[in-house]
Amino acid sequence: MRELDRTPSALPSRCAIVGAGRLGHALGAALSAAGVAVEGPLGRGAEPAEDVVLLCVPDGEIAAAAAALAPRSGRLVGHCSGATTLEVLAPHEAFSLHPLMTVPEGGAARFAGAGCAVAGASPAALEAVRGLAGALGMRAVEVADEDRAAYHAAASIAANFLVTLEGAAERLAATAGVDRALLLPLARAALENWGAQGAERALTGPVARGDEATVARQRAAVAERAPDLLEVFDALVAASRVLVAA
Ligand SMILES: NC(=O)c1ccc[n+]([C@@H]2O[C@H](COP(=O)([O-])OP(=O)(O)OC[C@H]3O[C@@H](n4cnc5c(N)ncnc54)[C@H](OP(=O)(O)O)[C@@H]3O)[C@@H](O)[C@H]2O)c1
Q1: pLDDT tens across the length of the chain (246 residues)
Q2: Distance (Å, rounded) from C-alpha 141 to C-alpha 130?
Q3: DSSP class of residue 8?
Q4: How many Å separate Cα 51 from the centre of its chain?
Q5: Is 179 left (phi over 0), alpha (psi -120 to 50) or beta?
């Protein structure tokens, strides 16, 4: 990973967005707010007029959406996928911008201050994507092609699986009559501690204290009230023990 310097590079003054889903709408609004003239987000079959085109379509649709665009001199075509390299955009002069940010349906997207992986197949493409990232206030990093799948898996663990985990906690809490709102400050504090201190120092709780009797009581409660969560519980206890041992 190489973090690119944050001096604003040339900002494309106009761009088109193809794909009117979660990210397409959120990026369109954020770029417009930053002063970029945005065409779209456009749906299927539209032929954008702009020279910089950002595809905000599902990963499996990127190749088809790129193939639907007429290649022309000076046109730059990018995608927003974390795990995908640039070949899929051929024959266009390609770039990619993957925001390290979660954009749920109808939810607010906070791009400023977040990271994003960028790539460019040419100096002009890299300059353009750095400009877009800069306009959004994002920290741009270059991730080597061979590292992209690992980078993307890390992002999924950090955000997607975290939500899955909190959903499991919410279900178990509900069996005790406790609302997820009460878990939220706890979860936020744990996340902030991890960010500030790293996992080894931030870990608290019965596993960190070596309190095996309490871990066993927790396990019995999970087995009784949400048996389908037992496998996840056991795996997380095991992973926490590895962390403690480290
Ligand atoms: N959402 C996030 O949190 C997030 C974060 C970082 C990166 N990304 C990346 O952003 C990209 C889009 O994700 P998303 O979450 O925004 O997906 P999404 O909400 O499912 O939206 C995708 C949109 O693309 C449209 N589409 C599909 N194929 C198309 C085509 N060939 N031409 C034009 N439009 C087409 C879909 O229209 P139909 O409904 O007609 O199929 C839909 O409106 C993906 O590469 C994803 O990895 C997403």
Answers
A1: 777 766 656 678 899 999 999 999 999 999 999 999 999 999 998 999 999 999 999 999 999 999 999 989 999 999 999 999 999 999 999 999 999 999 988 767 899 999 999 999 999 999 999 999 999 999 999 999 899 999 999 999 999 999 999 999 999 999 999 999 999 999 999 999 999 999 999 999 999 999 999 999 999 999 999 999 999 999 999 999 999 998
A2: 9
A3: -
A4: 26
A5: beta
Decide: 94 and 121 in contact? Cβ < 8 Å.
yes
Cα-only R_g, the chain: 22
Cα separation of 239 and 246, whole Å?
11
Q: Is 107 in the pocket of ligand 1 (CB under 6 A)?
A: no
Q: Contact, 129 vs 95, CB < 8 A?
A: yes
- 3-state percent breakdown (helix, strand, coil) of the chain, nearest 5: 50, 15, 35
Query: What region, left, alpha or beta, does residue 10 occupy, with left being phi > 0 and alpha being psi -120 to 50 degrees?
Result: beta
Residues 6+ apart with CB under 8 A from 77: 53, 55, 66, 69, 89, 92, 93, 94, 95
Whether residue 128 contacts residue 101, with contact meaning beta carbons closer than 8 Å, is answered with no
Q: Ligand 1 centroid vs 212 CA: distance in angstroms?
A: 46
Q: What is the DSSP letter of 57?
A: S
Distance 45 CA to ligand 1 centre (A): 15
Nearest ligand 1 atom, CA 21 = 21
